[in-house]
Protein: Ankyrin repeat protein-like protein
Organism: Morchella conica CCBAS932
Amino acid sequence: MAGTTTAHEDEGASPKELLLEAARRNNVDLLEEVLGNKKVDADFLNHSTDGVGNTALHMAAQHGSLEVLDHLLDQEGLEVDPINRMEQETPLHKAVQYANKEKEHGVDVVEMLIDAGADPRIRNKQKQRPIDIVDPRDTKLREILQRAEYAMTVGNDVVDDDDNDGPASDSD
């Protein structure tokens, strides 16, 4: 019969839709179900986006989904700084926007992304780094992002200097 659907067609969403929904709703069980699919790998996670280019990582950061964020960041090969199409923002930008609304919990989201290697120096479409969109009254979040920017700018030079017994030379 034309126009009718079978029970099989009504069964549900695609793995991409389930992934994004799990991130949006902090649903770890749903996320684990999606991650259990043999076709789901880092490439799938990095390229599954909504209509404006938000990945599951963007969604988890935007909605403060800490548990899902933790699981996602454990996935080998996951890109921690994907840039969405609409605003050219990273998950760290989304996390700061969330932190502006949900102070304490939001700081946890930001710190988790920074600990995973998110780059706080990336600028969005408006040329803003995550620190540029922090609520001016939130000195704690501003300090966290300043420290992260400094660590990224200095890079491994600090660690390398501590590991060397003397000045480096070309012959080392």
Residues 139-154 form the longest helix (16 residues). The chain is about 50% helix and 0% strand. The radius of gyration is 19 Å. Residues 1-10, 157-172 have pLDDT under 50 and may be disordered.
